[in-house]
Design a protein that fits this description.
By secondary structure, the protein is α/β, with parallel strands linked by helices. Helices cover about 35% and strands about 20% of the residues. The longest helix is centred in the middle third of the chain and has 20 residues. The structure holds zinc ion.
């Protein structure tokens, strides 16, 4: 029986991040309306989902979960996940003012249905094989601890061994504070694995989505042979306030956006979400050699 006290249309409190899920990551009903954080338009959850979670009015790209991103990019049923059983052991027995890290891991797993903040595997795009790693911002801000670093490294090593392109889709606030120095070491570990991939002559495409900051931007995210970003994504190392305090000067309003870093030569292109799969397919095809046969 329908609860008459509930309105037929509800506006989600999502902070604009995950319009098809509430703060606990649960799926929301189709009649739920979401306010676009950019243009303030009220959008129906189902219409937004149909549009790959891009606002039809202003083009604002809402964040995607890792499963949604994999579905968007890969050929149907082509994804074979691996290293999915890795779990953080909370090596520092870290307790913050807000609670124990061990408890946080349990609640994040329940909330997202993921074991940690990255999903890795192999699959195909338009029939072309690749290794794919996708970060999920819902899981402790997509932060990189030992498990995220290990899973990324295993994916890169798999790409190196099988000589298939590596694609990493970033969505992360940086290193995981709860794992201290062990978390920072993942920057070196993933970068070293990528150096071996480069030595083997295998393509690495880095896709930056909202947000890609701090230790992620200072390691694997900016090491791509080709670096693409989604429109409007927050990208940078430190936030504008920290930079202003250090440099003692005002920064442009659009600093730390995909558009700003493109203008300053730090990335190769901005790709709308609806074109991302096709753009990746073009790069994979060129790398496979089949794209170079024109006129040969
Ligand atoms: Zn909008």
């Amino acid at each position: 029986m329908r609860d008459e006290s509930q309105p037929a249309l509800t506006v989600a409190q999502t902070n604009g991040a995950h319009p098809a899920a509430d703060a606990l990551g649960r799926a929301l009903p189709d009649n739920l309306a979401v306010k676009c954080p950019n243009c303030r338009e009220l959008l129906l959850g189902k219409d937004l989902a149909k549009n790959n979670k891009v606002c039809p009015k202003c083009g604002h790209h809402f964040r995607l979960s890792a499963p949604e991103r994999i579905e968007l990019l890969l050929d149907p049923d082509s994804f074979n996940e691996f290293a999915s059983d890795l779990r953080s052991t909370d090596p520092l027995s870290f307790v913050a003012r807000s609670g124990a890290y061990a408890d946080k891991l349990v609640s994040e797993r329940e909330k997202t249905g993921l074991e940690d903040a990255v999903v890795v595997g192999v699959g195909t795009i338009e029939g072309l094989p690749l290794a794919l790693a996708v970060m999920d911002f819902r899981f402790i801000g997509g932060s990189m601890g030992s498990v995220v670093g290990e899973k990324l490294t295993r994916a890169i090593e798999r790409a190196t061994e099988e000589r298939i392109p590596m694609v990493i889709v970033s969505a992360s606030g940086g290193a995981r504070q709860q794992e201290g120095t062990l978390s920072l070491m993942q920057m070196a570990k993933t970068s070293a694995a990528l150096a071996r991939l480069a030595d083997a002559g295998v393509l690495y495409v880095s896709v930056l989505t909202d947000p890609t900051t701090a230790g992620i931007s200072a390691s694997f995210a900016f090491l791509g042979d080709v670096i693409l970003a989604e429109p409007g994504a927050l990208i940078g190392f430190a936030g504008p306030r920290v930079i202003e305090q250090m440099m003692h000067q005002r920064l442009p309003k659009d600093v730390n956006t995909a558009e700003f870093v493109l203008k300053h030569g730090m990335i190769d292109g901005i790709t709308h979400r609806r074109e991302l799969r096709a753009a990746l397919a073009r790069l994979l095809r060129l790398h496979s050699g089949s794209g170079a046969q024109v006129g040969a």
